């Protein structure tokens, strides 16, 4: 699905990612954990194609394409999706309008006919139910005046509507109460399938109580310093991150 | 002061007013940049000073039908003149008073709203207009459909037009009026338009204006509203066209407990210059006014917003709000925003604000990351910005008309 090789990324001349390698196969859910400021969101933004992130070394191959050659919208059209940590509010732009434009832009790029208003409405009603949102939701402006929980559910709504093959979830669990967290986790679990992959970036082990990750990686100082399974996440929850630092120091 | 070519002022209908106005105009002359109210707008190149008054009656017949909006009462104005409609619903009277028809109307049946002692252009119009388009809505009349004034302009290049419209809404009446101002040719025109609206006790008006003149036209408009007791006005203006546009919107609370809402959207591109100037005169207590003025500028366009809420002494419990937001799409476009409050009374609630900015990159990236290309994403955001004003037009037919005009205008504006 995606292969990241020795990725180095600078932001305003400062090296944030210092050689990341990661392969995600179809159907896998990878979790990247780490403290604040270790480069988690930088990785998410580079994958989605945000500018001002300079890749100085390394490569990202997505389904045999060089991902770095693609614009953000092209990445979305080939099946990549980023659930934002802080979704931006866009006053005046109606959710329905926005979602329909996005769905049709992606359909068009794949050679499909655009969806008309009637079909779209029927489709979006089903999706809204899955994230426990009311129909009035799509008549509001994008993220404008949304609560923290609504913003994150909106990201999941967009994911299940746009049907990407690789979803990067950047701190989608942060700031959620337990009910909202369950809804978000359920949305992701329902969406899992053998040909869809996930990279879940998180601070806490909490959301993993509701999910079954295949791999867990620890990001520290711009590098993936340790990889494991769900057991690693549990250990981190119990012992924090400092033991890994100590381990690294011992290894020299 | 600019030298004024002498055109004989009118000596028949409203003869005394014409003489007074002409005298004021001769003394004051056209405004220049030394006049604070015109500091950022220079009308001089657009005045067509050597041009003639509109003379011939052009044939508009074939064009009329395509401008009609469904579910409305169309009334056509060609250049300065009313095309008298065949029949109108009961209680609506629309007449064209030819300036040569002496004394057809007593002065009591209308009230001066536009003040020719403070504006050269209003004075010039008051002295020179040849047709007085008079619309009267009788007491307690509430027509089912809006009146649609279709103002078409097609004339010799270099000509000068002085349209004059007076609307009287009698006690208890409720009316919605649309005006679409459409340039049918590409020739240079100077238009000096004065509109007066009197809203009597407990009468209510909704007015939506769409200005779509050609880019070689200088369009100076003065829109004057007088509100009596318990009356309300909602005025929406959309400035799409014109090369040089000045729209003065004056609201007078002449009696207590009036309510006025002004919404304006101006969208200059290319070399267009659009100047929106609002003045709300809170002369009486318990009146409220809300102004929302938004601009979207691209190309080398320039714009001005000048808004004044003037709260007179003893106008207690005044509520005056004013908000101006501008979106700049091109590095060479420029807007000057001058929000002002003048308050001579303590017991008031007043606010004003002004912001000017560009499209937010964060929001653009968000939309792009969902598969929408940059141009379309910008289009969505610009329309989103405009919609706050467009959606003030509640009537769905007119809302649709404005949406379409907006889409047409935006084509080529976003790169």
What is the overall silhouette of chain B? Answer: globular
The largest sheet of chain A is: 6 strands, mixed
Tell me how many strands of chain A there are. Answer: 12
Provide mean pLDDT of chain B, rounded.
92
Biggest interface pair, counts: A-B, 31 and 23 residues
Radius of gyration of chain B: 21 Å
Structural class of chain B: alpha/beta
Which strands sit side by side, in order, in the main sheet of chain B?
A: 2-1-5-8-10-12-14-16-18-20
Which percent band covers the strand fraction of chain A? 25-35%
Count, helices of chain A:
8
Low-confidence stretches of chain B: none
Q: What would the principal axes of the Cα set say about the shape of chain A?
A: globular
Strand order of the largest sheet of chain A: 6-9-10-3-11-12
List the helices and strands of chain A in order. Answer: EEEHEEHEEHHEHEHEEEHH
Structural class category of chain A: alpha/beta
How much beta of chain B, percentage-wise? 35-45%
Quaternary organisation of the protein chains: heterodimer
**End-to-end gap of chain B:** 41 Å
How would you sum up the major sheet of chain B?
A: 10 strands, mixed
Give the uncertain stretches of chain A in residue-range form: none
The radius of gyration computed from the alpha-carbon positions of chain A, rounded to a whole number of angstroms, is: 18 Å
